[in-house]
Structure to design on (139 residues):
């Protein structure tokens, strides 16, 4: 990966070329770029550090995001299970209540049938007594 793409890099100092070139009055070789190599190296290392830090942070964020997704999924599954348990519990309670009501209805029907039979017997007995009274004591 070339991190310096698009940048102009100045030529580096070469000791072989320096021996072939003339010295300036200041003692420097014309065109020598002693500090450029250090600057380019530090710039490249700085850019590499920035990229590595960015990649490390991206990985950390991705890991946190994945963990949060897993936690959210586990929480959603647990909530779903609790809702199902609650609904099943309510359905079960409703079913039990329905069975109790059906038993009470059967008991009430039985009691009503017994009272109907007794009422019919009382009506038959009172009708028979009425008939006897009319026969014994006509008007």
């Amino acid at each position: 990966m070339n991190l310096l793409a698009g940048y102009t890099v100045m030529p580096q100092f070469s000791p072989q070329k320096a021996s072939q070139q003339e010295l300036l009055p200041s003692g420097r070789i014309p065109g020598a770029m002693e500090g450029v190599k250090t600057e380019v190296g530090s710039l490249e290392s700085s850019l590499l550090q920035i990229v590595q830090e960015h990649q490390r942070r991206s990985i950390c964020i991705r890991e946190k995001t994945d963990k949060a997704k897993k936690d959210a999924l586990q929480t959603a599954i647990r909530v779903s299970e609790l809702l199902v348990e609650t609904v099943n519990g309510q359905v079960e309670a409703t079913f039990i209540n329905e069975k109790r009501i059906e038993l009470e209805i059967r008991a009430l029907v039985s009691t009503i049938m017994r009272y109907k039979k007794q009422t019919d017997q009382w009506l038959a007995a009172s009708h028979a007594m009425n008939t006897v009274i009319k026969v014994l004591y006509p008007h």
